[in-house]
Design a protein that fits this description.
single chain; alpha+beta; about 30% helix
Length: about 140
């Protein structure tokens, strides 16, 4: 576990929620942006970046990208020093108390800084998740 990680990295088994829809990646590695996403009332979901779509990145480059995204996220949430250390240990990925505005700000700033992640953002409805493990 890296102490500077803020966003949680989850391995998800995903079967989908619509029988007619073809799932492109049924075992995504997701850097979770919001694990209580339901802005449209269509069901609680996990919103995050599917890192499997960054297939051209080597493992070390992927870890570096995660580290850089989390460093930016700490700035957005104004988490510094010992708070960032404690968050990395005990509160990794826990953003339940963030306002909708703060969640939007996080997304917009991450997209501006890391435009390559825009194509990897996905929503995984809890009804379609068959397994979930936190890395």
């Amino acid at each position: 576990m890296k102490l500077d990680e803020a966003l949680r990295l989850d391995k998800i088994g995903y079967k989908g929620t619509r029988a007619w829809y073809s799932i492109h990646d049924d075992n995504p590695n997701v850097l979770v942006l919001d694990d209580n996403y339901d802005v449209d009332g269509n069901g609680r979901s996990i919103l995050g970046f599917n890192l499997n779509y960054l297939d051209k990145l080597k493992a070390s480059d992927r870890r570096n990208l995660i580290k850089r995204v989390n460093k930016l996220d700490n700035k957005i949430l104004d988490i510094k020093g010992i708070k960032a250390f404690v968050k990395g240990l005990f509160n990794k990925g826990d953003y339940k108390n963030l306002s909708v505005e703060k969640k939007k700000e996080r997304y917009e700033k991450i997209m501006k800084q890391f435009p390559e992640l825009k194509r990897t953002i996905r929503r995984y409805k809890y009804d379609g998740v068959s397994k979930r493990s936190k890395k």
